[in-house]
Amino acid sequence: MAELTQYGELIPKGGGDPIPLLKKNLMIGRRESCDVVLRFGNISAHHCEMTLESGYWFVKDLNSRNGTRVNGYRVTKRRLDPRDVLSVAKFEYEINYVPADLGAVGPPPDGGDLEDILGSSLMDSAGLNRKERQSVDGRIGRNQPAPSPEVVSPESEAASDSESEESSDEEETPAED
User: Fold this and answer.
1) DSSP label at 109?
2) Burial of 169 by CB count in 10 Å (0-12 exposed, 13-18 middle, 19+ buried)?
3) Cβ contacts of residue 8 below 8 Å, gap of 6+?
4) What pLDDT digit, counting tens, does each position of 52-67 carry?
5) 102-121 burial, b for 16+ CB within 10 Å, e for fewer?
6) How far apart are CA 109 and CA 105, in angstroms?
7) What radius of gyration do the chain's Cα atoms show?
């Protein structure tokens, strides 16, 4: 009989038997046709898919109702590094594998959507960057209309300098959480 190749394993965090990763593409879900069957009501029929790419495991959520998480972050596609915690709905598994044994060479490939999100501010990711929005609608500061140009006299110039110092102090105040 041919020897089965194991590409790693999923170790249940709450205890239980490890799940061997015997194929390079694995479907995880509630259906019997899945490679890894999890018979729980909160697991989708086809919950997520794991693929081995360049020596690293990746997980892709398949629009599941209760989500797929890696180290607590909900993901659509993400690289699974050794010892990462994969959560399928509320069930947690630690992935155990050695990338070098699976053909990995050099730096790991792009990790997926978490690094894309963390690479820019959440406001930018959501399209809510205030500076860009203000430049489009002509507003400055704290949603105040842009001032209209005025004729400057020496008395009003001194007054406007003190006002601009006060407004710049307000803008530097950190936002409350």
Assistant:
1) P
2) exposed
3) 20, 21, 57, 95, 96, 97, 98, 102
4) 999 999 999 999 999 9
5) bebeeeeeebbbbeeeeeee
6) 10
7) 26
The CA-atom distances, in angstroms, between 36 and each of 22, 49, 107 are 10, 10, 29
Q: Is this structure's pTM higher than 0.90?
A: no
Span 103-134, pLDDT tens digits:
988 888 887 765 455 555 566 556 666 555 55
8 Å CB contact between 102 and 55 = yes
Q: Which two tokens stand for residue 169?
A: 């102090």
Q: Provide the H-helix boundaries in the chain.
A: 113-118, 122-125, 130-137, 154-171
